[in-house]
Write a structure and sequence with these properties.
By secondary structure, the protein is of the alpha/beta class. The protein has 11 helices and 8 strands. The strands form 2 sheets. Strands 2-6-1-7-8 form a 5-stranded parallel β-sheet. Strands 3-4-5 form a 3-stranded antiparallel β-sheet. Bound molecules: 2'-deoxycytidine-5'-monophosphate. The site of 2'-deoxycytidine-5'-monophosphate (DC) has 14 residues, from α2, α6 and α10.
Length: 236
């Protein structure tokens, strides 16, 4: 079986760009698990569930009761960079900052995590996959052959995110982007369930001063070394 490559890390560290490029270089599938949480946020919004208000009111029980049937019936497909919800392309909406924020809030809820983790394990089980998220190396595939934890300085992550939003025509101040990013870091790393953490056996890579190509090359070298060792072990 071809290996599973797990890439975890905070928002804005460059996970998606790097994971996509690494998957292409290796000829592996690419799975963005954050997009699945975003798809749930969109499904909740479309179902008229005021998740933001219920979360803010601390009424997780009411929210979970409303989300349960939606989660049971949900169909999310990841096709490269496209995200399909019930067969419908929702890629553009998944990139809305408000959806990222709602996804982060909903990702703290047990039924949401349980359902998506089940789907994610099924999607990656065959191997030959680069999977990115917050809990891939710690919870989804703790036995993944290769794990990376991608980090970058908060100022650099904010600058990158701001440049991305500005290029899309979103008018937003750099300070505001940084504050939102820090809030999301706090929430993702501070939640009780599967908080953002580096697995003990993950290789940490700091992308602050490194370009995409440099990071991907370092990762590729590591994957090829591990694959080589695994092949050797199989033969022995
Ligand atoms: O990677 P992203 O920003 O698209 O993810 C959106 C949110 O989903 C993130 O703030 C936390 C949650 N998430 C998670 O809890 N576990 C994952 N494996 C991926 C994302």
């Amino acid at each position: 079986m071809r290996p599973i490559v797990a890439i975890d890390g905070p928002v804005g560290a460059g996970k998606s760009t790097v994971a996509r490029a690494l998957a292409r270089a290796l000829g592996f599938a690419y799975l963005n698990t954050g997009a699945m949480y975003r798809a749930v946020a969109i499904a909740a919004r479309e179902a008229g569930i005021d998740a933001g208000a219920l979360v803010s009111a601390g009424d997780a029980t009411a929210l979970e009761a409303r989300l349960r049937p939606l989660l049971e019936a949900i169909s999310i497909e990841l096709a490269g960079d496209r995200v399909l919800l019930g067969g419908r392309d929702i890629t553009a909406a998944t990139r809305e900052p408000a959806i990222g924020d709602l996804a982060s809030r909903l990702s703290a809820l047990a039924p949401v995590r349980a359902r998506l983790q089940e789907l994610q394990r099924a999607a990656g089980a065959a191997g030959g996959v680069v999977m990115e998220g917050r809990d891939i190396g710690t919870v989804i595939f703790p036995d993944a052959e290769i794990k990376f934890f991608l980090v970058a300085d908060v100022a650099e992550r904010a600058r990158r995110r701001w440049a991305e939003l500005t290029a899309k025509g979103v008018a937003i101040a750099l300070d505001e982007v940084r504050a939102e990013l820090e809030e999301r870091d706090r929430r993702d790393a501070g939640r009780a369930l599967d908080p953002l953490r580096a697995a003990p056996d993950a290789i940490e890579i700091d992308s602050t001063a490194r370009g995409v190509e440099q990071v991907v090359n370092a990762m590729c070298t590591r994957v090829n070394t591990v694959s080589h060792v695994l092949k050797g072990l199989k033969r022995a």
